[in-house]
Amino acid sequence: MAHGQVVGTHSHAQGQLLYPAAGALATTTERGTWLAPANRITWTPPGFEHSHRAFGETEIRRIDLPTRFCRFLPARPSVFAVTPLLREALLALSDGHPRGPGPRHRLRGLIIDELTGAPPQELYLPEPADDRLRVVTSLLHADPGSSATLRELGRTAGASERVLSRLFQDELGVSFRQWRSMLRVQHALVLLGDGHSVTTISSRLGWANPTSFIEAFVAVVGETPGRYQAELRRTGAP
């Protein structure tokens, strides 16, 4: 998929695993957006309406899972880390080479075993239904590095800082600060995949300094930006 390319809203009768071997893939539902960068895999259950968007030139490996396998995986979209063994199984099952039912079944079983043994990597950004919140989140999506306060954004949304703060907690389950930080981290993952430095990313996305960026990144991703970028290089991603 080319950078910015979108696959419109759809669903599948089977479960689907999408592994971006290069680039990054966002999966969006009415509940929010899950981001799978190049060392993660996104899972979408059967019948779950969703759309996709590519960030960077994105090479995607697709694995369709019959419903009998799906009961072992979460009932909502999720993102998982890709272990070396899982990566090799994903590549083998999606390399286009003909395989009999037995080998395909065993490879799928191996993939399920690896996924069920790994905790989800919740690179997830919830999206609001309230019109006032949607104004605020749309402004931040357009400019994730914006330093505007919730009070300033509220003037455009036609709501007070107090009302918006309560809506973030009640509807999305996070504070305004947490939501903006998660949005920035999702953008940071893409920029790290493109080879940008920690200093450049922290400045571009509105963090006060690189240390603040690193702390926010670790809180969401579970590892430092430097380690994440090193893993991308080690697995052969850009």
Contiguous uncertain segments of 5+ residues: none
Shape: globular
- Bin the strand percentage: 15-25%
CATH superfamily of the largest domain: Regulatory protein AraC
- CATH level 1 class label of the largest domain: Mainly Beta
Major beta-sheet overview: 7 strands, antiparallel
Judged by helices, strands and strand pairing, the structural class is alpha+beta
CATH architecture annotation of the largest domain: Sandwich
User: Overall mean pLDDT score?
Assistant: 87
Distance between the termini: 15 Å
Order of helices and strands: EEEEEHEHHEHHHHHHH
Per DSSP, the total helix count is 10
Count of structural domains: 2
Query: Per CATH, what is the topology of the largest domain?
Result: Jelly Rolls
The oligomerization state is: single chain
- What fraction, in percent, of the residue positions are helical? 40-55%
Question: Would you count the extended β strands for me?
Answer: 7
The value of Rg in angstroms is 19 Å
Explain what this protein looks like in three dimensions:
The structure is a single chain. Strands 1, 2, 3, 4, 5, 6 and 7 form a seven-stranded antiparallel beta sheet that branches. The chain is 46% helix and 22% strand. Strand 2 (15-29) and strand 3 form a beta hairpin. The protein has helices at residues 67-70, 84-93, 101-116, 131-142, 150-157, 161-172, 176-193, 198-204, 210-221, 225-234, and strands spanning 6-10, 15-29, 32-36, 40-44, 50-65, 78-81, 124-126. The model has no long low-confidence stretch (mean pLDDT 87). It contains ten helices and seven strands. The protein is an alpha+beta fold. It folds into two domains: 6-124, Jelly Rolls, CATH 2.60.120.280; 129-234, Arc Repressor Mutant, subunit A, CATH 1.10.10.60. Pfam families: HTH_18 (PF12833).
